[in-house]
Design goal:
The complex is a heterodimer of chains A (115) and B (113). Chain A is an all-beta fold and 115 residues long. Chain A contains no helices and eleven strands. In chain A, the strands form two sheets. In chain A, strands 2, 4, 5, 6, 9, 10 and 11 form a seven-stranded mixed sheet that branches. Chain B is 0% helix and 58% strand. Classes of the chains: A mainly beta (115), B mainly beta (113).
């Protein structure tokens, strides 16, 4: 099993450009998440999904959109990138999230720089 | 406000020595507490998970303790190895249908030869 994979690993964008980050998991997990990690801060939840066709906002959703058209894939989109979105983005998946839920499995991360 | 505070922010120890990392939280209602290890340039990997009824849990040389009354947890690393150099993140889960996770900022551990 590959676990959770992310594409691309690195990306440099200019302000105003758009891009999509792809997350894929082969563990048949229902729940998937997108986080961002910035220096000196804990991981912050951007959006998450409780199943195919569903999405929900997390702690810092502004400037991002997501889609979960297939159970195994979770896409994160930046429509008009801003320097404040320079960060490392992590995707994660789990069986559930409710009532303590289950362990989250993280991908290797995507390092995004917006100039 | 639900918060998770970790200390120290960073720590340097010599190979073979033991160390203890601290985590204090104010999350309520509490469901469970997890410790993750994050190697540089990689995603976090789960080390342990403890519910309120568990006082201690081990994973090899890693031993986590939990005091739900004082809302404190610690991660003890025994006989450290160079490969233990990483950030260690404490994560507390809220009890409920949302199961929100509150992440600490992590402790950066460097093990020197």
């Amino acid at each position: 099993n590959a676990g959770v994979t992310q594409t691309p690993k690195f990306r440099v964008l200019k302000t105003g450009q758009s891009m999509t980050l792809l997350c894929a998991q082969d563990m048949n997990h229902e729940y998937m998440y997108w986080y961002r990690q910035d220096p000196g801060m804990g991981l912050r939840l951007i959006h998450y999904s409780v199943g195919e066709g569903t999405t929900a906002k997390g702690e810092v959703p502004d400037g991002y959109n997501v889609s979960r058209l297939k159970k195994q894939n979770f896409l994160l989109g930046l429509e008009s990138a801003a320097p404040s979105q320079t960060s490392v983005y992590f995707c994660a998946s789990s069986w559930t999230r409710q009532f303590g839920g289950d362990t989250q499995y993280f991908g290797p991360g995507t390092r995004l720089t917006v100039l | 406000k639900n918060q998770v505070e970790q200390s120290p922010q960073s720590l340097i120890i010599l190979e073979g020595k033991n160390c203890t990392l601290q985590c204090n939280y104010t999350v309520s209602p509490f469901s469970n507490l997890r410790w993750y290890k994050q190697d540089t340039g990689r995603g976090p990997v789960s080390l342990t998970i403890m519910t309120f009824s568990e006082n201690t849990k081990s994973n090899g040389r890693y031993t986590a303790t939990l005091d739900a009354d004082t809302k404190q947890s610690s991660l003890h690393i025994t006989a450290s190895q160079l490969s233990d150099s990483a950030s260690y993140i404490c994560v507390v889960s809220e009890w409920g249908s949302q199961g929100n996770l509150i992440f600490g900022k992590g402790t950066k551990l460097s093990v020197k030869p």
